[in-house]
Amino acid sequence: MSPDGRDVVRRPRSQPAPVLDSSLPVQSGQHVKGFVKKLREDGKIDIALQKQGLVVADDAREIILEKLQAAGGKLELSDSSTPEEIYAALGISKKNFKKAIGMLYKEKKITIGEKDIRTTQGKG
Q1: Which helix (H) or strand (E) holds 56?
Q2: Residue 30 per-residue DSSP state
Q3: What residues are paired with 39 via a beta bridge?
Q4: Together in a domain, 60 and 45
Q5: CA separation for the pair 57, 62 (Å, rounded)
Q6: If you ran DSSP here, which 8-state letter would residue 91 be given?
Q7: Do the Cβ atoms of 96 and 56 come closer than 8 Å?
Q8: pTM higher than 0.90, yes or no?
Q9: How many Å apart are CA 75 and CA 60, to the nearest integer?
Q10: Domain tally for the chain?
Q11: How far is CA 64 from the centre of its chain?
């Protein structure tokens, strides 16, 4: 248990670090917040660095709408943007970005171009 009362999973130094479900770089010894994805039958735990499912897409959706509003309705990001570009601009993974822009597109709140996304407010 950590000093602040959270459960901490410790592993012997002889075991390799688990492969994390993220494109974020993580260094040995670095402390990061994680989310338990699955408790496996072999006693291992699958950990994600981000929340999973539609909760994440909803959070990402809000982040994208806020950034679009702050940028005057246009972001130079699209399906063809690299994961690094998306993370640098929004702090979310490309997978979650694509889920979120798909939701926004279906809601007719954005249009998706080859190199950008734009709000649809005021059009029409």
Answers
A1: helix 54-70
A2: -
A3: 45
A4: no
A5: 9
A6: S
A7: yes
A8: no
A9: 14
A10: 2
A11: 12
